[in-house]
Design brief:
This protein is α/β, with parallel strands linked by helices. Strand 3 and strand 4 (138-145) form a beta hairpin. Strands 2-1-3-4 form a four-stranded mixed beta sheet, sandwiched between helices. Helix content is 35%, strand content 17%. The protein has helices at residues 14-27, 49-59, 69-72, 79-88, 104-112, 150-159; strands at 38-44, 94-98, 122-129, 138-145.
């Protein structure tokens, strides 16, 4: 069970909440996580489409035009990595990628890009997706360090493949 006091959580969109809870569970007491040597990498298919549709509803009707700044801020898929970094005082790289399909090889390669920075020792991230208009999600997040083998990470993402509904 997650037990945290973070009032901003209740203002977040579904994608950010999902990433936030995942990292709360993964990082817990943050043992081994040093702010400037840790990276956050999120990979998904839908990005912020769920929130984009909600924001569109606030600006599409000229008779009921009410642009919502609190919704607009979440119309970028990379906001999830920023929210995670802020919460956990992570100052390393944060990246967000959108891909056509759930492919463990691509996911591992994108996670590994953060290790191109020799100062990065650990990475938290992986697959995170909240399809638009649906009440479902898919999530496969992990924390790895430089010593974790490429094959171990691929095996993790192969264990429970994700199907994308288009």
């Amino acid at each position: 069970m997650c037990d945290f006091a973070y009032p901003k959580f209740y203002k977040m969109d579904s994608l950010c909440r999902l990433g936030f809870i995942a990292t709360e569970l993964l990082l817990g007491d943050k043992t081994g996580v040093e702010g400037d040597t840790h990276a956050i990498v999120a990979i998904g298919y839908s990005g912020s489409l769920n929130t984009d549709a909600r924001y569109c509803e606030t600006i599409c009707d000229t008779d009921n035009y009410f642009p919502s700044p609190s919704v607009f801020v979440y119309t970028l898929a990379n906001i999830v990595t920023g929210e995670i970094a802020i919460r956990n005082k992570i100052y390393g790289e944060t990246s967000s990628f959108l891909v056509d399909s759930y492919d463990p090889t691509i996911i591992v390669n994108l996670l590994s890009t953060a290790f191109a920075d020799p100062g990065i020792k650990t990475i938290t991230g992986g697959w995170i997706d909240v399809p638009p208009g649906e009440k479902s999600f898919s999530l496969r997040f992990v924390t790895v360090n430089r010593d974790t083998s490429h094959q171990q990470i691929i095996d993790f993402f192969n264990q429970y493949p994700v199907e994308i509904n288009r």
